[in-house]
Design goal:
The protein has 246 residues and is an alpha+beta fold. It is 26% helix and 32% strand. The strands form 3 sheets. The protein has a 6-stranded antiparallel sheet with strand order 4-5-6-9-8-7. The protein has a two-stranded antiparallel sheet with strand order 1-2. A hairpin with a 2-residue loop joins strand 8 and strand 9. Helix 2 packs across helix 3.
Length: 246
């Protein structure tokens, strides 16, 4: 005997449809949503159904409801300082939003030549690999594909990455002394598009980051962000003659 699939309530269907439209970039941050009356006509449901869906989306931080003006897509473009290496959980928490993680894979593997060279390890050396999707208020904003040097974080794979990030573990076991990163635009592979809930071949911002602790490479991370949901900020001050630009 097979179990019956639980049917979604009407407000859940409306909520999921609006959530998907926002996640796919159909409604950009700051855009005014259709009125409740327009949504009622669009979904063919009661006004109370639409009202509850919007109320829950507001509670989750996906939309903002303004008295006498309507509902707007919340500002979901996280700003990450590209001159700092921080835990994404802390960044999201500081914005007053909720961070959740979907673990795609945690494993040991043999380093391919490219990774071995970047990590200053011998070809075929064992490395740890973590693949995670980080979400802000339920919306995917980063796919993390990270290789870690087991010598610097031997207990890494014992952690529950739905509760703690690899960055947090590394900050504790291999304090950062150096870092370098490269930022480039790439097109999402079919798998990346699926994980980030964006159309195939969407533009992504990829941050390639290598972190070093006391002269040893701790990790190589490739961090993929939907271009429509993420932006990077760098700022610096220039002092003295040596800082002049020609």
């Amino acid at each position: 005997m097979t179990a019956r699939r639980k049917r979604s309530l009407p407000y859940e269907t409306v909520k999921a449809a609006i959530h998907q439209r926002i996640a796919e970039g159909g409604w950009q941050p700051g855009v005014r949503l259709p009125s409740e009356r327009e949504l009622v006509l669009q979904f063919g449901c009661a006004r109370m159904t639409v009202h509850r869906a919007l109320r829950e989306l507001e509670a989750e931080g996906l939309i903002e409801r303004r008295q006498g003006s309507g509902s707007y897509v919340a500002e979901l473009h996280p700003i990450s300082n590209l001159l700092q290496v921080r835990d994404i959980h802390d960044e999201i928490a500081e914005r007053g939003h909720v961070h959740t993680t979907r673990v795609c894979g945690v494993m040991r593997e043999k380093a391919v030549p490219e990774i071995a060279a970047a990590m200053r390890l011998r070809k075929g050396a064992t490395v740890y690999r973590c693949q995670l999707v980080h979400m802000e208020n339920g919306v995917p904003i980063q796919f993390e594909d990270r290789h870690v040097n087991p010598a610097l974080a031997p207990d890494l794979l014992k952690h529950d990455f739905s509760a703690v990030t690899p960055s947090h573990v590394l900050f504790e076991h291999a304090p950062l002394t150096e870092a370098e990163q490269v930022i480039e635009a790439v097109l999402a592979s079919p798998e990346q598009a699926r994980l980030l809930d964006v159309p195939a071949a969407s533009a992504l911002l990829m941050v390639s980051r290598r972190t070093v602790s006391q002269g040893q490479v701790a990790s190589i991370a490739r961090l993929y962000h939907p271009g429509s949901r993420y932006r990077l900020l760098g700022s610096f001050s220039v002092q003295g003659q040596e800082g002049k630009l020609a």
